[in-house]
Amino acid sequence: MAQSEQLAVLPGHGPAEVDSVVRRMLAYGSAWPAGDGLAVFNRVYLAVTREIGRHIDDGLFADRRTAVTLDVLFARRYLSAVDAAAEGRRPPACWRPLFQYRRHPGVRPLQFALAGINAHIGHDLALAVVDTCHALGCEPADLEGAFDRVGDVLVLLEERIREDVMPGPDLLQIADPLTHLVGAWSLDRAREGAWSAARLLWGLRELPDLAGEFTERLDAGVGLVGRCLLTPWH
Q: In whole angstroms, what is the distance from residue 83 CA to residue 113 CA?
């Protein structure tokens, strides 16, 4: 299924749709070597997706239908990028650095995780908000509660990174360039940028040429940041 066709499918309103995303990620994890850069990000994102699913099941989102739709359409952006690369097509520019460097021996796991998070939040999240508005016939303001709740869960990304892929204190010293790299990228700023980009794109929805140009520039800009995050250290 082409990316535009896949994203046009409106997911249902129950946990089965989130479970289907989890199954796809589990399949990737089984197929890719543990040290593969995309596998590193996939492990982090799988943990977060499962946590969002638990929050939905526990009724922690005010509007279950909105939460499921946003979560699934958000995840489909990542899944579609993986499918594109597997089929020999070009994934969005924001994802290309990770696909290009995923097996580079000089890139550390933390960099792979940050590059995937950068692509998925910096680019995909903004577009997923717009996808959800179209799917549900609503405005971005109607999604703000779900967006914030998903954002709270995304904080688990940082915790997961510390647990799984952050080098120990003996490896990550103050003079290590990776220390400065980690400090230069902010999850909170990326979330804020995604929300602003989504609102702008929604405002441009009846100006497709401008919306397309903005989306292309957003994609390229996020891709440039990702390439910097993946600078090999040896």
A: 19
Cα distance between residue 128 and residue 202, in whole Å = 11
Hey, what are 26's tokens? 């589990």
- Nearest CA among 215, 128, 109 for reference residue 172: 109
- Determine phi and psi for 166, rounding to 5 degrees: -75, 130
What's the 3-state SS for the chain? CCHHHHHHCCCCCCHHHHHHHHHHHHHHHHHCCCCCHHHHHHHHHHHHHHHHHHHHHCCCCCCHHHHHHHHHHHHHHHHHHHHHHHCCCCCCCCCHHHHHHCCCCCCCHHHHHHHHHHHHHHHHHHHHHHHHHHHHCCCHHHHHHHHHHHHHHHHHHHHHHHHHCCCCCCCCCCCCHHHHHHHHCCHHHHHHHHHHHHHHHHHCCCCHHHHHHHHHHHHHHHHHHHHHHCCCCC
Q: Which residue has the tokens 């290009």?
A: 100
Q: Which residue has the tokens 């958000």?
A: 74
Above pLDDT 90, what percent of the chain? 62
Q: CB 23: neighbour CB atoms within 10 A?
A: 10
Side-chain half-sphere CA neighbours of 96 within 13 A: 12
Q: What is the pLDDT of residues 176-219, one digit of tens each?
A: 666 666 667 888 899 999 999 999 999 999 999 999 999 999 99
Rounded to whole angstroms, how far apart are CA atoms 56 and 64? 6
